Amino acid sequence: MFNGKEVRNLRKERNYSLKELAAKSRISISYLSELERGNKRPSLSTIKKLSTALNVSSREFMEQKNSEGITLGERIRMYREENKLSLKELAKASQISYSYLCGIEKGFALPSIRSLRKIAAGLNIPLNNLISTGSDLGTKLTGIRKEHGLNKSQLAKKSGVSPGLIGKLEKGEVQPSLQTIEKIASALEVSPCYFIVEDDGLQELLHLLSPETRSLLLDNKVQSVLRMLRQCNEKEFRFILDFIKMLKQANLCDQE
């Protein structure tokens, strides 16, 4: 979110009066005063004017969210990068403007539910994945940590965070920042999206399987294979899928 106090701090560091900064940024003195007090929310164009006048990045005006969890904009960016989409590509797929999408990702704009539905459709994910609280993050983190045979201290060292934070995350006592999620995901060799995606789609997929197949998934050997699959890159995974298709087409699995 926009931080008006930081605008005032930067202005004073440069010994600018309200009048001088207003003139440099080509906005009114009264509006600038309202921005600094946090009474107004600026547009993207106004933020760009201020950043140019103060010779800083627009990010300097944004409040830090490290202690408040992943923001909506960060969540959208994670999914966008997961799908290897540029901002322009996602804007086109979502049928919303590029500048509006930029503003949403940076926290300058709050989208309507209608816009969020379009973005979710552009990302090919359920809407709940963007607006869910991620309350099961701790459970997922505990499970995958144990699968890797790591204790909390080992995971903390590997991901560059404190053991205490790992413990609080697993208990659901704190919400992680995007940077923390990315560090932990990298250490565990999974996508950051793994920790925030809802499980509804997976449960639906499991229900489509036959009882025999669902039972087979409980076999230790099968679960071992699934864990290995999780660590495959895209090229390796596609090779495995193509090999399975070849087996089915040749009816080799049906031969005794």
Layout of SSEs?
Blueprint: H1 4-13, H2 18-25, H3 29-36, H4 44-54, H5 72-82, H6 87-94, H7 98-106, H8 113-123, H9 128-131, H10 137-147, H11 152-159, H12 163-171, H13 178-188, H14 200-208, H15 211-216, H16 220-230, H17 234-249
Helix pairs in contact: 5-7, 6-7, 6-8, 10-12, 11-12, 11-13
- Give the topology string: H per helix, E per strand: HHHHHHHHHHHHHHHHH
Mean pLDDT, to the nearest integer, reads: 78
Proportion of helical residues? 55-70%
Q: Give a short account of the largest sheet.
A: none
CATH topology label of the largest domain: 434 Repressor (Amino-terminal Domain)
Q: Write out the CATH superfamily name of the largest domain.
A: lambda repressor-like DNA-binding domains
Number of domains: 4
* Strand percent estimate: under 5%
Discrete helix count: 17
Distance between the termini: 64 Å
Q: How many strand units?
A: 0
Shape: elongated
In the CATH hierarchy, the architecture of the largest domain is Orthogonal Bundle
- What is the name of the CATH class of the largest domain? Mainly Alpha
Low-confidence stretches: 64-68, 199-205
SS-based class: mainly alpha
Radius of gyration (Å): 24 Å
